[in-house]
Amino acid sequence: MAKYYRIDNAEIGEDTIVRDFVNLYGCKIGKGCRVAAFVEIQRGVVVGDRCKIEAFAFIPSGVTIGDEVFVGPHVCFTNDLIPKAVGEWDTVPTVVKNGASIGANATVICGVTIGRNALVGAGAVVTKDVPDNATVAGCPARLIGFRDTTGKKIIKKTAKGKKGKGQK
């Protein structure tokens, strides 16, 4: 475990590594996860098993992350559609399903679901649900293709819904 951190009422699974300068408040983190430096995970967040959360990620209340999810550096989730500095706010749930990967500097607007094995490109702004195995990129994030069954190859989406090279 890290030397410099703030952990209040957090459940941390076996074999999970938490680096320095991390803030964890009332969250649950599964087994075998890796949480890099300067990450904040807030109250009520659930992180599955074998996840990797890179440096400077922000995961507020209302977010649920499945197993084997990658959250890249500087990824920011939101949890209120109409934020304000004073008064109450409405926490809007966000779900990231098993095997999804979110690239560096992506922003995930609350209320969306990122599907199983989906890939969110670096710098994307996710404003709508991302289907299973889909690859999205841009601002706002748009569908650019799908991952194959291995999760390593991206089959590009082509104009007018035509199938891309290698797509059946």
Determine the CATH topology: UDP N-Acetylglucosamine Acyltransferase, domain 1
Order of SSEs: EEEEEEEEEEEEEEEEEEEEEE
Return Rg in Å: 16 Å
Poorly predicted runs are 162-168
Q: Specify the CATH homologous superfamily.
A: Hexapeptide repeat proteins
What structural category arises from helix and sheet content?
A: mainly beta
- Number of discrete domains: 1
Q: Can you walk through the features of this model?
A:
Residues 162-168 have low confidence and may be disordered. The protein has a 9-stranded mixed β-sheet with strand order 3-6-9-12-15-18-20-21-22, with no helix packed on it. Strands 2-5-8-11-14-17 form a 6-stranded parallel β-sheet, with no helix packed on it. Strand 21 (142-147) and strand 22 form a beta hairpin. The relative contact order is 0.10. The chain has strands spanning 5-8, 11-12, 17-18, 22-25, 28-29, 34-35, 40-41, 46-47, 52-53, 58-59, 63-65, 70-71, 76-77, 94-96, 101-102, 107-108, 113-114, 119-120, 125-126, 134-137, 142-147, 154-156. It starts with a strand and ends in a 12-residue tail after the last strand. With 168 residues, the protein is mainly β. It has a single domain (5-161), classed as Hexapeptide repeat proteins (UDP N-Acetylglucosamine Acyltransferase, domain 1).
List the helices and strands and how they pair.
Blueprint: E1 5-8, E2 11-12, E3 17-18, E4 22-25, E5 28-29, E6 34-35, E7 40-41, E8 46-47, E9 52-53, E10 58-59, E11 63-65, E12 70-71, E13 76-77, E14 94-96, E15 101-102, E16 107-108, E17 113-114, E18 119-120, E19 125-126, E20 134-137, E21 142-147, E22 154-156
